[in-house]
């Protein structure tokens, strides 16, 4: 949270079908924006307290943080273009 770059966090779980559907898009975007943004995955089964802290009610949820503050959230298996647009707003 103390990053000088935007941070993308994907809240997911291994049993989640939609999470597996967007995995290739997240992986691709993390390579495209390498050096401009940090990307992390948070398994909600392993870290339920953190998921609760951020109000995660459904997965996948992608949250973008900037300067330690939540700036945007995308819920569900959305097209890669939607994620790209969301990321671009915060670079």
Task: Tell me about this structure.
The protein has 91 residues and is α+β, with helices and mostly antiparallel strands. It has a domain at 14-70: Glutaredoxin. 34% of the residues lie in helices and 27% in strands. The protein has helices at residues 17-32, 48-53, 80-88; strands at residues 7-12, 38-43, 61-66, 69-75. It has a four-stranded mixed beta sheet, with helices on one face. The longest helix is centred in the first third of the chain and has 16 residues, at 17-32. The radius of gyration is 12 Å and the shape is globular.
Portion of residues in beta strands equals 25-35%
Helix fraction?
25-40%
Largest sheet: 4 strands, mixed
Number of helices: 3
Computed Rg: 12 Å
Can you tell me the residue ranges where pLDDT is under 50 for at least 5 consecutive residues? none
The CATH C-level name of the domain at 14-70 is Alpha Beta
Topology:
Elements: E1 7-12, H1 17-32, E2 38-43, H2 48-53, E3 61-66, E4 69-75, H3 80-88
Parallel strand pairs: 1-2
Antiparallel strand pairs: 1-3, 3-4
């Amino acid at each position: 949270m103390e990053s000088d770059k935007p941070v993308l966090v994907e809240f997911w779980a291994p049993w989640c079908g939609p999470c597996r559907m967007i995995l290739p898009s997240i992986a691709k975007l993390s390579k495209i924006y390498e050096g401009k943004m940090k990307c992390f995955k948070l398994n909600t089964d392993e870290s339920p307290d953190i998921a609760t802290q951020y109000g995660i009610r459904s997965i996948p949820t992608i949250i973008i943080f900037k300067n330690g503050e939540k700036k945007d959230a995308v819920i569900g298996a959305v097209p890669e273009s939607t994620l790209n647009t969301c990321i671009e707003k915060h670079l």
